[in-house]
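Troubleshooting log. The previous structure file for this entry was overwritten by mistake, so regenerating from the original sequence record. Sequence copied from the archived sheet and checked twice against the printout by T.R.
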Amino acid sequence: MVFRFFLTVAFLSSLSITAFADGSQDRTQFGHDITVGPGEEVSEVTCFGCSVRIRGRVAGDVTTFGGGVAVEDQGQVGGDLTSFGGNLRLEKEANIGGDVTIFGGRIHRDDSAKIGGDVSIFSGTFWLLLIFGLPFVILGAFIALIVWIIRMVMRPASPVPA
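Regenerated output below.
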C-alpha cells in the first residue's frame, strides 16, 4: 500500500519536473534506470521508481525517489546527491562535490570515495512515512474538520418543548 502511494506521488511529480527540464543534458526518467557511462557528462539526473548508475560525470544534482544510486569507476557528481527510499553505493575513487542525503536507505562507501559536503542518513521506513504520510494525515484531518463544521451548520434546529 505504501509502495503504491509512493509510486503515485512520484508519477505526479515526474509530470511537473519534466516540464522544467531546461537542457538536453538533463536526464529524468520514470521507471527506467539511468546510466551515465564513462566519459559521458550530464547536467542533472532525476529518477522516479528506478535506479541511477554513474560511471561518468554529473555536473549538478542527482535525485532518486524509490531507487538507489551507484557511483562507480571514478564517477563524479558535482552537486548534491539525494535518495528517497534507496541505497547509495560509492565505489573506489567516487567523488561527490556537495551534500549527500539518504531517506529510508543506507550508504555503502569505499574508503577512497570522497564527499565534499555533509552526509545525512535517515534510515528506516519511519522517515519515509513521516515525509510522505504526514501531509496526507494533516490534509485528512482538515477535511474531516470541514465536514464536521458543515454538518453542525446544516443540522436542523430542534424544536423547543413548550
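The chain has one domain: 2-154. Archived copy saved in two places this time.
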